[in-house]
């Protein structure tokens, strides 16, 4: 395990955050400081602890193996400014290396998961600037995380917010959630995967309707058309997402990673190639201790003890 991977669990474990407290993070969120400073944990422990600017991070689950990441820019309805997206990718990449964490839940506030890319921030950008800077390129870091991410969406998931939820692996919605790609109203188009992922979730006709009108859909419809896999009362959403995350985290870490990669391959390739890839991954699990342990435990009628090997 890398130094950074160790520090994430240690920082949070030291502060004893096994129960939720989304509004008030109960641990010193010093990870940002360490990442930025590159100091050893001993050195940085002696300094004033610095909080994330745009995120709250907590550890959840009976076995403290679920990371809960909350977007926290309430005044702007979690508009995804550059600083927020940089912080989010850094935190997710660090969690991804933490052996103790088996699944991630990404959420926002009751009012907004995220109302899209920050319109004020990009309002005066020129073509040369956005091309030159590769504007929004760094967002794809979220889709490259190897651990499963469950998006728990309450309130608005619009534009980049809807796209961010679709970069996750499972989407759960609160009853009042609203999804949409309203970029057309702003004179632009989705720029973080909306035109590509949305039709894969909901089919061409519905995706066209949403992208070309900018109309929003409510959670119930999002469920009916397959954009989200479950809808819960808003105040139960995070608990339900954490429950699912705990179940995922109870399985072999390495096999979960392989399963996620196999399913994601379905969106990148032909059926024949995808089936070939799946078969190779399936065969590969036979080289793992965890595969042997899982089947042996079944035969011996006991719970498996996975080691991630
Ligand atoms: N960027 C920057 N600020 C935003 C924002 C955004 N995407 N969405 C909301 N805000 C800000 C508002 O400017 C407002 O700030 P002030 O109080 O300082 O004026 C604050 O959040 C609250 O918003 P509203 O007063 O508008 O709240 P509302 O309840 O009346 O409406 C809303 C809520 C329907 C979500 C409305 O804010 C809205 O339409 N937001 C923009 C949604 C949008 O167009 N998203 C797509 C952005 S482009 C994109 O995402 C490109 C991409 O593909 C990556």
TrEMBL record:
Keyword field contains Phosphoprotein: no
Key word Lipid metabolism present: yes
A Gene Ontology cellular-component term: mitochondrion
SUPFAM superfamilies: ClpP/crotonase (SSF52096)
Pfam families given in the database record: ECH_1
Enzyme Commission code(s) on record: 4.2.1.17
GO biological process, one term: fatty acid beta-oxidation
Listed CDD domains: crotonase-like
Protein keywords: Fatty acid metabolism, Lipid metabolism, Lyase
Main enzyme class: lyase
A GO term for molecular function: enoyl-CoA hydratase activity
Family affiliation: Belongs to the enoyl-CoA hydratase/isomerase family.
Name of the protein in its database record: Probable enoyl-CoA hydratase, mitochondrial
Native species: Adineta steineri
Organism placement in taxonomy: Eukaryota, Metazoa, Spiralia, Gnathifera, Rotifera
């Amino acid at each position: 395990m890398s130094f950074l991977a160790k520090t994430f669990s240690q920082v949070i474990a030291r502060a004893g955050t096994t129960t939720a407290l989304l509004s008030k993070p109960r641990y010193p969120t010093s990870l940002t400081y360490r990442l930025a400073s590159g100091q050893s944990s001993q050195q940085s422990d002696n300094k004033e602890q610095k909080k994330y600017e745009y995120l709250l991070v907590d550890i959840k689950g009976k076995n403290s193996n679920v990371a809960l990441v909350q977007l926290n820019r309430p005044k702007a309805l979690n508009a995804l400014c550059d600083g927020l997206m940089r912080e989010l990718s850094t935190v997710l990449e660090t969690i991804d290396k933490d052996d103790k964490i088996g699944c991630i839940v990404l959420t926002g506030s009751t009012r907004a998961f995220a109302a899209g890319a920050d319109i004020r921030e990009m309002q005066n950008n020129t073509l040369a600037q956005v091309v030159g800077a590769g504007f929004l390129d760094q967002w794809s870091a979220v889709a490259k995380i190897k651990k499963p991410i469950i998006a728990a969406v309450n309130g608005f998931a619009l534009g980049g917010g809807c796209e961010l939820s679709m970069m996750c692996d499972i989407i759960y919605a609160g009853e009042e959630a609203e999804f949409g790609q309203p970029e057309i109203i702003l004179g632009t188009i989705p720029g973080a995967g909306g035109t590509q992922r949305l039709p894969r979730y909901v089919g061409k006709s519905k995706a066209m309707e949403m992208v070309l009108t900018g109309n929003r859909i409510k959670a119930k419809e999002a469920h009916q058309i397959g954009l989200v896999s479950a809808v819960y009362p808003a105040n139960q959403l995070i608990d339900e997402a954490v429950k699912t995350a705990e179940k995922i985290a109870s399985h072999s870490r390495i096999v979960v990673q392989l399963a996620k990669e196999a399913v994601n391959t379905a969106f990148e390739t032909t059926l024949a190639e995808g089936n070939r890839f799946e078969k190779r991954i399936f065969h590969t699990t036979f080289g793992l201790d965890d595969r042997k342990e899982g089947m042996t435990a079944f035969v011996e009628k006991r719970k498996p003890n996975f080691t991630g090997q």
